[in-house]
Amino acid sequence: MTAVTNSSPKGGSTMPLPNARASASPWLTVILLCVGQMMIVLDQNIVNVALPAVQRGLGFSSENLVWVVNAYVIPFGGLLLLAGRLGDLIGRKAVFLTGIVLFSASSVLCGAAASETVLIASRFLQGIGGAVASACILGMVATVFSERREQAQAIAAYSFASAGGGAVGPLLGGVLTDLLSWHWIFFINAPIGAVLVLVGARVLPRDRGEGMGKSTDFLGALLVMAGMMLLVYTIVDAERVGWGALQTLLLGPVSLLLLIGFVARQATAAKPLLPLRFFRSRSLTAANIVQFLMIGGMFGLLFFGTLYLQQVLKYSSLQAGMGFVPIAVVIAVVSLGLSTRLITRFGQRAMLLLGLALIIGAFVMLSFARVNGVYLVDFLPASLVMGLGFGLAAPAVMGLGMSAVTPAESGIASGLFNTTQQIGGAMGLTVLSALVSARTNSLTAAGKTEAESLAGGYHVAFLAAAGFTLTALVIGTVLLKATPPEGMEQQGMASSEENAPVS
């Protein structure tokens, strides 16, 4: 059964939304959206491998090079929540296609950049386009189908696009940079974006949204945009200037005050951007916290795993990228094949907890990776376990969170989930980087070799990431209620109040 409905994925009525038209090709819709998500996630990870080539090509200083990444991350993380709500108000299809156009056009500007300033400015525009496009994707994917098994399959496909894109990014970045040039890590987005816009204009279901009236919360939009962008900037720049620096101590509280003002505004606005009743749902709140911690750990794998292969095992960029292929393959197999059947049979909570336990085990295995290690022994087994764990956990946590809202508000829920991912990743990577730096310097001062010092630092990062994930496991165990297997769930069964869809 295919429809855009007013029911949660747990069951209940399946009335189509009055302002939406179901897609005539539902799986084509899901594939299209997942390609868009993978393109955006790839771009976030593909750049890291190409940074040395960018530095040589444009003469970047070491201090400014980080802004090739930060100029994208700041608007991306800051605008997701607002963009998701705009999707609910003016239509998710229009917001998605607008974001893809901006993302693709700015990608061309990035590829053609001939100076530091042009590239950084173009990356900022690309971050805006990426946020606008991706904010609504999960909400659209989750509402294509009304039947529970098909919903689980669609969310699993989205999970693969997100996680698989992150794992494939280093490989594709290495291939394009080595065989062509760094310019092509950006140019490749243009033809993909053109296809997405041309096909999406015909295939994606039309929805009018709630409408932008006089009561629309523009003050709330300004507060959350300023607060989130300033918070992301403070986090990503804290590693450079230090957590105790005047800039961090000043901007951090200011960003929090702006976000507190946003929360206060939401309590009084006639048409709030983020209704505070959302957080009465224990499933939605807990799922976002679990994802925050899980993604914080996963960023550690992608970043420090790549550094371990390159700086300790002395792999080239292309070889290091190839080292992440097994993770992408396992995530694909589990997300697109196994997870849906297991979630349908055993429930989302059970698969989330199992996936988190496997991720913890993988990080612990990586903490024993040797200085003179061998890929097949020191990295591959842990990466396979990681892929299995993430392939089970990611669809489950997204399904638990999205089941707590109605399709009419899936845009803001999608934006919230994406915001949680970005803030979790940024904060996690910053904390892990500080731990790595402290441990590496300590080992260097003790007379260890460079490789031994780096490996010791990465071991601390992997153990800390295991700690993040363990905390997520505890929270999921305590706060998330078990979801019944599909065969035991009866149509129209009333959910408990705390886990009922927000309405």
Structure characterization notes:
This protein has 503 residues and is mainly α. It folds into 2 domains: 26-216 and 271-485, Growth Hormone, Chain: A; 217-270. Helices cover 75% and strands 0% of the residues. The protein is built from 18 helices and no strands. The protein has helices at residues 26-58, 62-65, 67-90, 92-112, 116-134, 137-142, 148-179, 184-187, 189-203, 218-241, 246-268, 282-312, 317-323, 325-346, 348-366, 375-402, 410-445, 450-479. The protein is globular, with a radius of gyration of 22 Å. Mean pLDDT is 78; it is low at 1-23 and 487-503. One of its GO terms (cellular component) is plasma membrane.
Order of helices and strands: HHHHHHHHHHHHHHHHHH
**Would you identify the regions where 5 or more consecutive residues have pLDDT less than 50?**
1-23, 487-503
Radius of gyration: 22 Å
Largest sheet descriptor: none
**Global mean pLDDT:** 78
Secondary structure: helix percent: over 70%
Q: What sort of overall outline do the alpha carbons produce when their principal axes are compared?
A: globular
